[in-house]
Design goal:
Layout lengths: L28 H6 L3 E10 L4 H12 L3 E8 L5 E10 L1 H13 L3 E6 L5 E11 L3 H10 L3 E5 L3 E8 L1 H11 L4 E6 L3 E3 L30
Antiparallel strand pairs: 1-3, 1-4, 2-3, 5-7, 5-8, 5-9, 6-7
Length: about 220
């Protein structure tokens, strides 16, 4: 007769604490309580070559980082592009995102910008054209420009901080918003601070040639 395995009854076994997220991963309740999600802006220099955007976005997808926006564009160096990635994660998630980005071969430099960094976003809002005067009045409130107008629809362009953009979108709701397009954040540090290419920080080797040892005959 086969004997059962020794051990506590199932009802007496210790069960792990914490909820599971939508992917079935158990969340440590202590870590969740200690580290509340916060917004972080990661300014990243990458090699300007095909496939880099897919590699970066694939990393964030696999690691299940919560991306709020991702923008990419050219820099003053034809070989380097700049990505501005806005994420909302607890502190460990922000640190992990920076570490994982730095491991990617095409990534040249990664820096989290300070909260007071200069951030701007552009938005195009298309609304009903039934009340053009009222639409123009709201656009003026947010320093917006009407870039297209017809009896059916009016499109307004607005540039500013995330808070300004979100307030403008809410203000245009009264005009039957038909379409909204947002670029995502572009950001730089204030003052003289710049994001540098890490490859250029290596110690320069002296240009002075080494003196060759000359053999002497006895």
């Amino acid at each position: 007769m086969t004997q059962g395995m020794e051990g506590p009854h199932p009802d007496e076994r210790m069960r792990p604490e914490g909820r599971r997220n939508s992917q079935g991963i158990r969340i440590d309740p202590e870590a969740e309580a200690t580290h509340q999600p916060r917004k972080a802006v990661l300014s990243t220099l990458v090699k300007h070559e095909p496939g880099v955007l897919a590699e970066v976005s694939g990393l964030f997808s696999r690691r299940q980082f919560n991306i709020e926006s991702l923008t990419v564009g050219a820099t003053d160096d034809d070989e380097i592009a700049r990505m501005t990635i806005v994420i909302e994660e607890p502190e460990p998630g922000v640190d992990q995102a920076k570490k994982q980005l730095k491991k990617l071969v095409p990534v040249v430099s990664v820096e989290e910008l300070e909260p007071e960094a200069v951030q701007r976003e552009l938005i195009l809002v298309k609304v009903s054209g039934e009340k053009p005067d009222d639409v123009n009045a709201v656009a003026d409130m947010y320093d917006g420009n009407v870039v297209d107008a017809s009896p059916e629809a009016i499109t307004v362009e607005i540039t500013g901080s995330q808070q300004k953009i979100e307030a403008a979108v809410a203000a245009f709701d009264q005009f039957d918003v038909q379409e909204v397009v947002r670029t995502g954040a572009a950001a730089v540090e204030r003052g003289a601070d710049v994001l540098e290419d890490e490859r250029r920080k290596t110690t320069k080797v002296s240009d002075t040639p080494e003196t060759a040892e000359t053999a002497t005959d006895d």
